[in-house]
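Handout, section 4.2: multi-component inputs.
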Amino acid sequence: MPALDLVANVVVSGILTGLVYGLMALGLSVIFGVVRVVNFAHGEMMTLAMYAATVLFAAFKLDPFLAMLPVAAAFFVFGYALQAGFINPFITRPEHSQFMLLVAVAIILVNAMLMIFGPDARNVQVDYQLDSYELGPILIDKGRLFAAAAAVIAASGLFAFFRYTLTGKAIRACADNYLGARVVGLHVKHLYALTFGLGAVCVAIAGCAMVLLVDVTPPLGPAYTLLAFVIVIVGGLGSMGGALLGGVLIGVSEALAGLFIAPSAKSMFSFGLLILVLLLRPQGLLGRRA
Amino acid sequence: MLSVHNLDLYYGDAQALDGVSLEVPKGEIVAIVGANGAGKSSLIRTIAGIERPRSGTIAFNGTPITGLESHVICNRGIGQVAEGRQVFPSLTVLENLEMGAMIPRARGDAKRRLDEVLALFPRLKERQDQLAGTMSGGEQQMLAIGRCLMGAPELIMFDEPSLGLAPLVVQEVLRTIHVLNERGMTILLVEQNVAVSLKISQRAYVLENGRIVMSGTGAELLHNDRVRQAYLGL
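Output:
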């Protein structure tokens, strides 16, 4: 049995990593909640954002937190264009053709990354990465803390956008009642594209933050897609708070699994949690009953 | 103001509208009556740009609007109070009203119009922070009408505004339509409640199986034997 302060350390680090996971999953949840399309390329987009951060770092010594701005802007444009150009025409088609479209995007992304960056792991080295804050017996990595803070700020920004801005309310209106949105003359396709763009921004910021915590390789893509699904289902599909909560739970369960069993057993625990939630609360922890 | 000419609409192979032509003159209430499935709602949805006709033309204020997207048509000044009210249940009453004024033509004047709408429906003012989904059917209908007015329409299409409402509430809805018309609003009214809609309209069309089979002033149709037998049960 590991010492208690070690467990506390691992839990804190799991919570911080989990907030970054949560931001990634938030993007998936928002896209699904509004556009009703499952983004099967979500983890691949996350990996692409991580590569973007390493490239900007290698070329311009740009800190990943500063890289968030250009990467988020580029991802917004990418997400908007993907929805407006490719997904909107598929909205009224059967689900399996939407599925194939996004799986195709995922495969193209992951193989393009393999071609461009090769199979070797890449990372960034910033000087604060090895520093930590001491809180009694608990050591908090600076890089991890900043990454989590960025995720919380981005998520709060998104909450505020949906709550207080007219465009945010209009997006919620589209999610609430598609026919109603068309009846009052909302430009639904534009709002859908905006939503996909915002989901991509979540992924961009989460990716830039994540590159401080793990090395990036192309196979992370499918793994993160799966992880985002698990988080969103645990938290409750379409619930924004649920995505963050699910992220934290998965982050903590992965960290504890690494401590008590073996780091390679971490997915086993995430999926165990998923099965438990599906059995006991199928709508997810914060999800509304259908 | 609105002229529809020879409109054909298909859902797949099934024909919903067959050569429908009609005129809605400025300042009038025009009613479309007909049984369930006659194509009344399809007609409204096609004019609104939610369905695309196979052929035929729709013109508003002299300009063709056939095949335009729904948000563009709304912005030309055609508002709609849809069947089933179609409010946004998880948005507040105030947010619902704000959504009505998102079209470019209505944005600048939204504040003033909000005051007007809240004055017209004091009930909505009392409940402005309540979620729309928690309101009664009658209140939701008032909200749907208020939301439509927020878009500064020149013509409002009402699709079954009395459906599912208590008789007293139906009276209130009809009175509201009447008041709007007296203030100069042009209205296209689709109703299953034939007697009532013929009474308040200046002109009416009878739709059967996607075709206009009869038209005339409300009073003419009200005294027409065929209408009386088929729709009024007299």
